[in-house]
Amino acid sequence: MAFDPATGALKCPACGGTKPVETTGAVVEIPFAGAFRTTDRDNAKIAEDALQVTCGGCGAIVEFQPPEVAGACPFCASAIVAQPKSADAHLAPAALLPFHVQKTHATSLVQEWLGSLWFAPSGLQRLAQQDAVNGVYLPFFTYDATTLTAYHGRRGDYYYTTEYFLEADAQGRQVQRQRQVRHTRWSPCSGKVENNFNDVLICASRSVQRDKVRDCDPWDLENLVPYEPAFLAGFKAQRYQIELNEGFQVATELMAPVIDGTIRRDIGGDEQQIGTREVNYFDVTFKHVLLPVWIGAYRFQGRVFQVIVNGRTGEVQGERPYSFAKIALAVLAVVAIILVLAMLARDR
C-alpha cells in the first residue's frame, strides 16, 4: 500500500482499498542543549526496512521503503547506479506534513508553469510528463528560542529651523523666501529587549535551490503530525545534509533582523542607530521535520535546473534555461517584419 494524498490514507493500487494512517503521541520540541547526547532518537531510521542510496552526481542521500526503488536522482536527474543499502541511523524525524497535492495535479501545475515560459528549450517539456516529477520529503529543522539582547545605540529626533534665501521670481527680481530645514538631534541610549521565536524553519538540504524552497512558503506547520513511517510509503525522503548545529547558526541569522527591529522600536525617535548588541539565547528547542515537495530536475548544457512544487499548497517555483537558438530566431523574425513593413511603406 502507498500513501494517497487525495484520501490521506494508505491505498492499495490493485483493489483501491484504503487504510487510515494511525499516529500516536504528540509533536514535541527537543531541548537543543541535549541534542548531541546519544539517545534512542539519535540512533533511529525512517523505518525498520528503509534503504538508502547515494547519488554519484550531486551526493544526495535518498531514503525509501521497499517496494519503492531508487530510480533517477530527483535532485539532479542523474541515473543512480549505486546499489541501495540498509539506511544508516541518524536523527530521526519528529514530525511531518503529509502530501496533499496529488502527482497528477503536480504534473499539471508544472505544465502550466512551463507554458508561461518564453524561449524555453524544447527538451524542457519532458518535465511535463508524470514520470519526470518525484514526490520527496525534504529535511528541515525548526528552532524555538527566547532571546535577551543588550544594546547600545543612538536615538535621532527631528527638529526644524527656518532658513531664508533669495530666489528670482517670474519677472527676474530677487525676492526673499523661507523654508523649513530638518535637522537631527542625536542622543545616546541603551537597553535590553526580549524576543520569542517559534518554528524558525531551516532547510537541511544542499541538493535543492534554497531560494526556490523559500519561495515555496508558507508551510502550514500548525498541521504537523507525529512522524509515522506509513506516510513515506510510495515516496522518498532525503537525509539531512546540514547538521543541527549549523542549522541553528543559520536560524540566528534569520532572527537577527527581527531582533534589530525590536531594538529600533525600543530606541524610538525618528531615526535609530544600533552600535553594539549582545544576544543571549535561552530555552532553545528544535524539531527535525519532513516537508513534502514534488520535484523535477532537468539537465541543459551541463547545468541542472529544478522545478519544485509545494506538496501542500501547489506553489510552483523553478529556474529555467533559455534557448538562444529560439531567441535568435525570434530576433530574426522581428527584423524581417520590420524590413517588410519598411518596404511596404516605401512603395506607397
Provide a descriptive summary of the structure in words:
It is a single chain. This protein is an alpha+beta fold and 348 residues long. It has 2 domains: 2-152 and 188-347, no CATH class; 153-187, no CATH class. Helices cover 19% and strands 39% of the residues. The protein contains 4 helices and 15 strands. The protein has helices at 103-115, 210-215, 244-267, 324-347, and strands at 2-4, 9-11, 18-20, 30-31, 51-54, 61-64, 85-86, 95-96, 134-168, 174-203, 225-226, 236-238, 271-300, 303-310, 316-318. The strands form 2 sheets. Strands 4, 5, 6, 7, 8, 9, 10, 11, 12, 13, 14 and 15 form a 12-stranded mixed beta sheet that branches. Strand 1 (2-4) and strand 2 form a beta hairpin. It is flat and about 95 Å long.
Report a brief summary of the structure.
The chain has 348 residues and is α+β, with helices and mostly antiparallel strands. The chain has helices at residues 103-115, 210-215, 244-267, 324-347, and strands at residues 2-4, 9-11, 18-20, 30-31, 51-54, 61-64, 85-86, 95-96, 134-168, 174-203, 225-226, 236-238, 271-300, 303-310, 316-318.
- The average pLDDT value, as a whole number, equals 82
Could you tell me the radius of gyration in angstroms?
Answer: 29 Å
What proportion strand? 35-45%
From the spread of the alpha carbons, the general shape counts as flat
Structural class from helices and strands? alpha+beta
Helix proportion range = 10-25%
Provide a count of the helices. 4
Number of strands: 15
Distance between the termini: 74 Å
Spans of at least 5 consecutive residues with low confidence: 36-42, 322-330
Give the SSE order as H and E letters.
Answer: EEEEEEEEHEEHEEHEEEH
User: How would you sum up the major sheet?
Assistant: 12 strands, mixed
Total tally of structural domains: 2
